[in-house]
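An example makes the point: we print one protein in full, the chain in one-letter code, the fold tokenised, without further comment:
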Amino acid sequence: MRISKSVRVLVLLLILFFVIVYTFGQKRASTNWLEPLQVVIYPVNADGTAQIDRYIASLTKQDFSDIERFFTREAERYVMGLDNPVAVRLGQTTTLPPMPADAHAGILSFMLWSLRFRYWAWKNAADDESNYRRARVYVLYHTPTPGRRLAHSYALSKGLLGYVNAFASADQQTQNNVVIAHELLHTVGATDKYGPDGEPLWPDGYADPDGRRYPQRRAEIMGGRIALAPGKSKMPESLRSCVIGPKTATEIRWLR
């Protein structure tokens, strides 16, 4: 039986309405902070090598424990009523997700990629648990080659999904966790606080905007880098050198 165009349009509108309602509810549930936000990290062998397979096989939950400690420490500064804001666990290795759109391709391309990413994550779910209050971060591990630069990482606040490029090296693990925490904060509404040149923006992208501007000793996590001098900054070595600033805390509903 042939379905009329008006019926097809109605079905699509109903699906769109359901997605909007679900996304809104997911957003509210994931940032009420009445219970820990569940975070699952899925390792991905981005280069397809045996070396990376061995590295992924060696990973344990302990390798990501400083992410939990970071959120617990920062939540205490904002007098949160929750001792452990996030609970991180290591998921099973999964397949390579869709490549993200070019950062310069425009909003429409990124929107289309985000829909593909969400659909891929739904089709490739490793379990049947609800994702209503669960963030999923896919960490794409690459071979650590001297001079190699990784592509940008992305995250979606609509869908609680993150896409992180990282090096498969124990020496890089603490810096990998900085990027994971940064993208995780994107999933719950935090915005970037660095400029087109990658330098943290004053004042919200600085860990200590009330003190001396340069040099900073720590990084605001969404600013991404430690400001040392005008136009000069460095990547923090670990989450011990990062803080969640007031603007970010407001965006994720730690300050209201």
